[in-house]
Amino acid sequence: MNPYGRQHITQADIEAVIATLQSDYLTQGPAITQFENNFAQYIGCKYAVAVTNGTAALHLAAMALGVKAGSKVITTPITFAASANCIKYCGGDVDFVDIDPQTFLLDIDKVRAKLAAAPKGTYCGIVPVDFAGYPIDMEAYRQLANEYGLWLLEDACHAPGAYFTDSKGIPQMCGNGQFADAAIFSFHPVKHIATGEGGMITTNRQDIYEQLLLLRTHGITKNPALMSKNDGGWYQEMLLLGYNYRLSDILATLGNSQLQRANEGMQRRQQIAQRYMAAFKGTNVQYTQLPNGAYHGYHLFVIQTEHRLELYNHLQSQQIFAQVHYVPCHLHPYYRQQGWTDGDLPHAEHYYSRTLSLPMYPTLTNQQQDFVIEQVLAICG
User: Fold this and answer.
1) Most buried of 99, 159, 248, 305, CB within 10 angstroms?
2) For residue 131, how many C-alpha atoms fall within 13 Å in the half-sphere facing its CB?
3) What is the CB neighbour count within 10 angstroms for residue 213?
4) Could you tell me which of 281, 283, 348 has the C-alpha nearest to residue 311?
């Protein structure tokens, strides 16, 4: 079987988890802080907050940014639904804007036009997504957000280790907080770092960080500086309505172990991508090209073909389980009920009609990849 993505669990991962299972803490212990600190160092941000999954990360980040009833937020339709749903969880409204047909990312020119056409104050924020691992230019989005007084929440689930180069020639890691107010990551098994389930919020803003720590743990604190009184060492106060979105020490330990191989895994993803591009050059199989100074995360290797259904079915018959990322969010029944319909976002819809994600994970062998390439070209060559 050859899926589009797969976790890589080593003996070192297993031994690390066993050690935690035999320790004093299965949750709320030292492994959490260790994972947060190591991840923050890897990404290059000041603060990191571990949570139960990427969706929880989006939810808490939206709460910390002040999304509430009446808030209106822009995002892309080509993303997993949670990038939009997190706004709805908080009572806000989502406005989808079309993608750039070359990059498949949220089109900043269309976002700018949307903002310019609306009364100032209509929107409060933007959720750009580093789709497939393609690093979005967050410096450009920061400039636009500043012009309209908006916050930025970067969905970097596909892109830990990826970067773009800013106007000063400095590489900027996805999610490092230099331009976005907060960013989020996922540790689902098909992602770069796999903990089974898990997520992380990164930020350089202390106020957001402190809010996230409360929101993650029911809104409860034992910090004397925040409490109205202190009856003793047992005393705690609930300051706001939060959630139980804590990550366990078991999963944090697995994340820490996986993080040690993050660069190695990224290098292998680059090799796999280069082999795909070399094989498909000059054929009918289309793929995205990176601008100079960008380093793709390659969570996904996305191709475009006029023969998508035929290719998908053929690959399935060969035990190659390619996938489609994604059904445009605005065309899900839930969002259709809110007025969205076919034809609203033509670039996203055209992309969806032709897209397929091929196997992309570090343990994919050259022999396995050659077989995938052979089967793709049998239909699309």
Assistant:
1) 159
2) 28
3) 16
4) 283
The number of domains in the chain is 2
- Angle between helix axes 308-317 and 366-380 (nearest 10 degrees) is 140
Is 6:368 a contact under the CB 8 Å cutoff? no
Helix (H) or strand (E) holding 276: helix 262-280
343 and 237 together in one domain: no
The CA–CA distances, whole Å, from 376 to 58, 144, 276, 371 equal 35, 40, 10, 9
pTM: 0.98
Whether residues 213 and 247 fall in one domain: yes
Domain range for 288: 263-380
For 232, other C-beta atoms within 10 Å of its C-beta total 5
What is the C-alpha to C-alpha distance for residues 92 and 303, in angstroms, rounded to an integer?
34
For residue range 177-235, list pLDDT tens digits in order.
999 999 999 999 999 999 999 999 999 999 999 999 999 999 999 999 999 999 999 99
Question: Can you say how many angstroms the Cα of residue 124 is from the centroid of all Cα atoms in its chain?
Answer: 21
Other beta carbons within 10 Å of 18: 12
Q: CA 82 to CA 88: how far, in whole Å?
A: 9
- Cα 265–Cα 362–Cα 158 angle in degrees, nearest 5: 70
